[in-house]
Design a protein that fits this description.
about 200 residues; six-stranded antiparallel beta sheet
Length: about 200
């Protein structure tokens, strides 16, 4: 069923990770992550490593100023009373206890704010972050980790261009093991309401 196909897609992505990403001519844009569900139950650790083959968004430099937002869909799958932790060179801010992200951030078109955000990697189509996030508590396994990839417009988050999303079903992560994968970034359709 759906779970078997999703497991196979993650296994294929893990296998692709073992090859040199620079050898992949014409590869689809993707984001590299390490992700694991951990004890205590309901905790998700995510390391956003890098992205590759992003489409150029700056006309003059043929580059992008990319960052990644992380959120759990549906939004009510993560409890508002939980703590979120961040660490690493690409993580923004310091840990907050029970804080709810502000509305109006990129990816908030449907009313569910991103949980976390990496820093912006300026002027590259191959950004690197190595940003670690711990998301908890997650109330259900019937949800997805959504990684939104954006181009920073420097005019404020409402003007940032949504490049696309990478999605990982939580049901793939119930084994309490680390998974390393290049997850494909699905481009945002131009007729989509969240396209900037």
């Amino acid at each position: 069923g759906v779970c078997a196909r999703a497991r196979q897609a993650l296994a294929d992505a893990e296998e692709q990770e073992q090859t040199d990403p620079n050898d992949a001519e014409g590869a689809l844009p993707s984001v590299a992550i390490d992700v694991a569900s951990r004890l205590p139950v309901g905790q998700l650790e995510v390391i956003v490593r890098a992205a590759r083959d992003l489409p150029p968004k700056k006309r003059m430099s043929k580059s992008a100023d990319a960052y990644v937002t992380l959120r759990i869909d549906p939004a009510d799958a993560i409890l508002a009373t939980g703590a979120r932790e961040r660490a690493g060179k690409g993580a923004v801010g310091r840990p907050r206890l029970g804080a709810v992200p502000k509305k109006g951030a990129p990816g908030d078109e449907d009313g569910a704010s991103p949980i976390e955000r990496t820093t912006t990697a300026w002027g590259t189509l191959y950004p690197s972050w190595d940003a670690r996030f711990v998301l908890r508590p997650i109330a259900t396994a019937d949800c997805t980790l959504r990684l939104g990839v954006f181009d920073n417009s420097r005019l404020g988050p409402k003007r940032d261009e949504h490049i696309g999303d990478a999605v990982v079903p939580m049901s793939l992560l119930l084994d309490q093991r680390w998974h390393r994968a290049w997850v494909p970034i699905r481009p945002v359709r131009s007729d989509s309401p969240d396209q900037k």
